[in-house]
Amino acid sequence: AAAPASTKIDVPSSDADKKVPLSGMRRTIAERLLASKTQIPHFYLSVEIDAGSLVTLRKDINAAAEASGTPKVTVNDFVLLATARAAAAHQKVNSAFAGDSVVEYATVNLSVAISVDDGLITPVIRDAQKLTLREISSTVKDLATRARAKKLKPEEYQGGTVTVSNLGAYGIESFYAIINPPQAAILAVGTIVKKPVVNEQDQIVVGQRMTLALSGDHRVVDGSAGAAFLATLKKSLETPATLLF
Questions:
Q1: Is the pLDDT of residue 7 over 80?
Q2: pLDDT digits (tens, 9 = 90+) for 71-114
Q3: 243 contacts 234 by C-beta, under 8 angstroms
Q4: Which residue, 8, 34, 106, 164, is most buried by CB atoms nearer than 10 A?
Q5: Helix count (H) and strand count (E) of the chain?
Q6: CA distance 142 to 229
Q7: How far is CA 182 from CA 47, 156, 203, in A?
Q8: CB 233: neighbour CB atoms within 10 A?
């Protein structure tokens, strides 16, 4: 059950300030995230991945897509597919705390954080671990379009088992997200950054790096389980061709 967002707070203001009443969506967000942060014992892990191969493969795929007139794919499409498959392989991440038990979900229903005019909504990609890259891409594009047009059905943003939040498009390099209850984990994705790195020959070269950060419910996910999940995710995204099969 969600805790109340807050009691009325006496906030100093002047006549020149604008007071915006909470919408239903903003109130729900406030209630759910307050409950999450106060009732769920969060812990945090992060990993930096080499995104060079991912950038190259995406460029090649999109060049072929442009030539054939088919839709292009995004970096986030790769991240979503890799997350779904990694969550399927690491059951604790795809679980929820139920008081006297832990529910381990049989399938990965991937919640995707999408910004809308009045806040944030997390529509769900069902059975995401079974989809191809193209199917993930087309599904998330459709959900995002209809979310922003307020045309989603309630069942389309319910029943998620793990969430991905990507702020890379805003230039954010790294962040930690608040868990989307009753789920046990959320993945925060940053932008790809060019930076000097040391290669296997101990040479300093230009690399492309992306930070992935996991917030976990420590009642369900131990540090080692979260680390194993991130290791699988890192391997998939650093060898992105494996996601095409």
A1: no
A2: 999 999 999 999 999 999 999 999 999 999 999 999 999 999 99
A3: no
A4: 164
A5: 5, 11
A6: 28
A7: 24, 16, 46
A8: 24
Mean pLDDT, all residues of the chain: 94
Catalytic residue among 43, 218, 227, 228: 218
What's the rounded Cα separation, in Å, for the pair 133 and 153? 24
At 6 the pLDDT is 52
What's the pTM value of the predicted model, to 2 decimals? 0.93
> How confident is the model over 153-172, as a mean pLDDT?
96
Q: What 3-state class would DSSP assign to 124?
A: strand
Nearest to 103 by CA among 223, 217, 230: 217
What is the distance between the alpha carbons of residues 5 and 28, in angstroms, rounded to a whole number?
8
Q: Is 218 a catalytic residue?
A: yes
Residue type, 241: A
For helices 223-238 and 75-89, angle between their N-to-C axes, nearest 10 degrees: 140
For residues 238 and 49, is the Cβ–Cβ distance under 8 A? yes
- Give the whole-angstrom CA distance, residue 70 versus residue 138: 11
- Cβ atoms 119, 170 nearer than 8 A: no
Q: What is the CA radius of gyration of the chain?
A: 19
Three-state DSSP string of 198-232:
ECCCCCEEEEEEEEEEEEEECCCCCHHHHHHHHHH
Q: What is the pLDDT of residue 117?
A: 86
Residues 153, 158: Cα–Cα separation, whole Å: 9
Question: What is the DSSP pairing of strand 185-189 with strand 114-116?
Answer: unpaired
Distance CA 208, CA 205 (A): 10
Residue 2 has pLDDT above 70, yes or no: no
Question: 173-198: per-residue pLDDT in tens?
Answer: 999 999 999 999 999 999 999 999 99
Phi, psi (rounded to 5 degrees) for 139: -65, -45
Helix or strand or coil: residue 106? coil
